[in-house]
Amino acid sequence: MASALAGRSGIAPALPLLSPAYLWLAVAIFLPLSAMAFFSFMTDLPMAGRDWSFTLRNYAAFFSTSLYPTLLWASLRLGLEVTFWSALIGFPAAYVLAKVLKGRGREAIFLLVILPFWSNGLVRVFSWAMVLREGGILDTALNAVLPFKVNIDLMYSYPAVIIGLVHSYVPYMVLTCYLTLQAIDDSLIEAARSLGASRLQVLRRLVLPLSMPGLVAGAVLIFVPVVGSFMEPRILGGRTGTFYGTVIEDQFVAVFNWPLGAALSFILLSVVLLILAAASPVIRRAQ
C-alpha cells in the first residue's frame, strides 16, 4: 500500500535519494530522543551501577517548586526578545541586500552577514566578553574619543545575554528574509510607487505581507534554540544568566542527574511544540 501511495504521489523515483537523508534523521533525532524519554522516567541511570526503577518523580519536580516554571517563563521571554531584536535588525539588512545593493557590494555585505557561521560559538561569546567588560574594547574606545570618562561594563547582565544571542542568531533572520524579498518582483514595487503609494505604504501593504514567510521562518529558527540556550547566558550573564537551559545543562554536566535533566528537557520540548501548534494558524496564513 505504501509503495502504491508513493507511486501515485510521484515520490517513488526520488526514494533512493531521499532514503539516506531520512534514515540519518531518524537515527540522529528519534533514537537519542527515545533514549532521553526512557531516562526521564527512571530514578537513576542504569550505567551508574545502582538500583533503578520507573517513576514520575522527575516530572513532578517541575510542578512541586516555583523555580522551574519561573525559569521556563524567563527563557520564553528571552526567546521572544531575541527574536524581536533579530527581526528588527535582520529585516532591514535583508531588504538592503535584496533590493538596494547590487554586484560586489552585495557580495561583501552578504559575506559579513554569514561571517558568524565561520567561527566557533564559544569564540563569539568570549569575544563579546572582551568587548562588554569594564576596561574592554568598547570602554577603551569610548574613553579615547569622548572628552569625559565613561564606564561601560555590561558583563554579567541581561543586556549582555541579549547582545550575544542576537549576534549569534540574527544571520538566520537575514537569510530567510533575503530569500523571500529576493522573490518579490521589482515591477510590483515600481507599480505601487507609480500609483502614488508612499515608501511606507509600499513597505506596509506590499513588502511586509509578501516577505512574511521569511519572517516567520526566521522567527521559528531563532526562538526554538534560544529558549534552550545555555552558553551565552552562562558566560555573558553570570548570576543573572540563570535560565531554564542552564539548569538543564547543570543536571547533565554538574549534578549528573540525567533523569531530571531529561524530564526538564521534554517539558521544554512540549511547551515549545504547544506554542508552535497554537501559532500554526498564523504561520499558515503568513505562508
From TrEMBL:
Plastid among keywords: no
Protein known as: ABC transporter permease
A Pfam match: BPD_transp_1
Family annotation (InterPro entries): MetI-like (IPR000515), MetI-like_sf (IPR035906)
Source organism, top-level taxon: Bacteria
Transmembrane segments: 21-42, 54-76, 82-101, 108-131, 156-181, 202-224, 260-283
Similarity comment: family membership: Belongs to the binding-protein-dependent transport system permease family. CysTW subfamily.
Main location: membrane
Organism this protein belongs to: Mesorhizobium marinum
Keyword terms: Cell membrane, Membrane, Transmembrane, Transmembrane helix, Transport
Compartments it resides in: Cell membrane
Species lineage: Bacteria, Pseudomonadati, Pseudomonadota, Alphaproteobacteria, Hyphomicrobiales
Signal peptide: none
